[in-house]
Design goal:
The protein is an alpha/beta fold and 215 residues long. Helix content is 33%, strand content 25%. The protein has eight helices and 14 strands. It has a five-stranded mixed β-sheet. Strands 11-8-12 form a three-stranded antiparallel β-sheet, with helices on both faces. Strands 2-3 form a two-stranded antiparallel ribbon. The longest helix has 14 residues, at 2-15.
């Protein structure tokens, strides 16, 4: 209702803070630097949104597979974590205007026999249980090794417990920047169409969504 959506924004302003759910382990979106400080461009976006709303951002770090559900439990007001506004999610949640466009890629060990995404059927891929990337590789016939996030997925591939992992092109670019000698390479070919990322919030929070969109 209009009343409840207005009250949500008013409650945030009254509290002087907006509660933000994110992983905090996902370079370069949100992660901890060498001093243990939470950094990343999504963290910076949330800080700027909070500033425009006249409040501060309180960050609540949560593993991916329970991250979106934290909105249902009112653990936080918004989620900013490279979340795509899929048709399935739009049935239950509202989304801001997009702030990022990126493409899905697949990484394997350098000595893997796989060369193209079209060859991944029947091979294992390390993926978070509820991620879009899991659906993409499953659609191409891959089996799934369930992991909690990007870092664990990379470790599973490097250790040989999974043959590949799919993720965001931005994440892989950051990983190779930080690990130029990593025993990994990207497959050629398209895993799927690129997607936009938006800030997720509970459905019906029109005043809050409009304020975030304006920011």
């Amino acid at each position: 209702s209009t009343a409840s959506s207005t009250n949500k924004l008013e409650a945030i302003k009254s509290a002087g803070k907006i509660r933000v759910g994110l992983e905090g382990t996902y370079r370069p979106f949100s992660f901890h630097d060498s001093n243990g400080t939470l950094v990343g461009f999504e963290k910076e976006i949330a800080d700027l949104v909070a500033k425009d709303l006249g409040v501060t951002a309180e960050f609540i770090e949560t593993p991916w597979d329970s991250l979106i559900a934290g909105v249902d439990a009112d653990r936080y007001d918004i989620v900013i974590n490279n979340v795509s506004a899929t048709d399935e999610r739009k049935q239950k949640y509202d989304f801001s205007v997009p702030y990022l466009y990126s493409e899905p890629k697949v990484a394997v060990k350098k000595d893997s026999s796989l060369q193209n995404v079209s060859e991944i059927s029947g091979h294992s891929s390390a993926q978070s249980e509820t991620s879009n990337f899991r659906k993409m590789v499953e659609a191409k016939g891959a089996s799934i090794v369930v992991v909690s996030g990007f870092d664990e997925a990379i470790e599973q591939v490097l250790s040989g417990r999974a043959e590949m992992t799919a993720n965001d092109s931005v994440s892989f670019a950051e990983y190779f920047k930080e690990h130029p000698d990593a025993n990994l390479r990207l497959l050629s070919g398209d895993l799927g169409t690129g997607s936009n990322s938006s800030i997720l919030m509970a459905k019906g929070q029109d005043a809050l969504r409009n304020a975030i969109d304006e920011s």
